[in-house]
Write a structure and sequence with these properties.
mainly beta, six-stranded antiparallel β-sheet, four-stranded antiparallel β-sheet, 1 helix, 15 strands, 38% strand
């Protein structure tokens, strides 16, 4: 398919991600008879918020340009010996003023550490494979197309508990709203709006 965000036109494939800042028009069209599944993540930009003059509008879930590596989590009850990587896709460093979108890729046996956000809520979307999502002390089976909401201050994380020759990667996407400045500081990238 194709998408238009503001003045930018792009071809849409399975892992395409789009960012339409408040007030920016967008459209997505299946123009070859294909089916397109859209997840729309929306939040009002608080009054007085800084905005970017040149935000990144198109990305891909598997873009590993900015990776958060080695995060073991902040929940002392959870052990994480094999931390998964997370791609930062839309965040202050790409000109995203309020929302964030990250992609977690858990190879067999890996997990992205259980943690909380002090002032942010988060939504998880299952993109590929199967694994589990942690929510407030419980691990829940999770797969492609599943969606889970975590309120602020609630422990959450993801893992791929499957191992062995048949095990496949488990991919999720989500992002705290408003973005959590602590994630960018822990990843040693600037949390400043670009």
């Amino acid at each position: 398919g194709t998408a238009v965000v503001g003045e930018e036109n792009t071809e849409v494939c399975r892992a395409t991600t789009l960012y339409a800042p408040t007030g920016t028009g967008y459209s997505v069209q299946a123009n070859k008879g294909e089916m397109i599944r859209l997840y729309i993540w929306q939040s009002l930009l608080p009054k007085g918020s800084k905005t970017s003059n040149n935000p990144k509008l198109v990305n891909n879930l598997f873009n590993n340009e900015t990776i958060f590596k080695g995060f073991k989590g902040t929940d002392p009850t959870q052990v994480n010996n094999d931390p998964a990587n997370m791609n930062f896709l839309f965040w202050p460093g790409t000109g995203c003023a309020h929302l964030s979108l990250h992609c977690g890729i858990q190879q067999p046996g890996q997990n992205f550490g259980v943690h909380t956000h002090p002032i942010s809520e988060e939504l998880f979307i299952g993109v590929e494979g199967k694994g589990q999502v942690h929510l407030n002390g419980e691990w829940i089976d999770f797969g492609e197309g599943d969606i889970l909401y975590s309120p602020e201050k609630i422990f959450h994380g993801t893992r791929n508990p499957y191992t062995g020759p048949e095990a496949k990667r488990f991919v999720t996407c989500g992002g705290p709203v408003p973005y959590d400045i602590n994630f960018y500081l822990m990843a040693n990238v600037s949390p400043e709006l670009k």
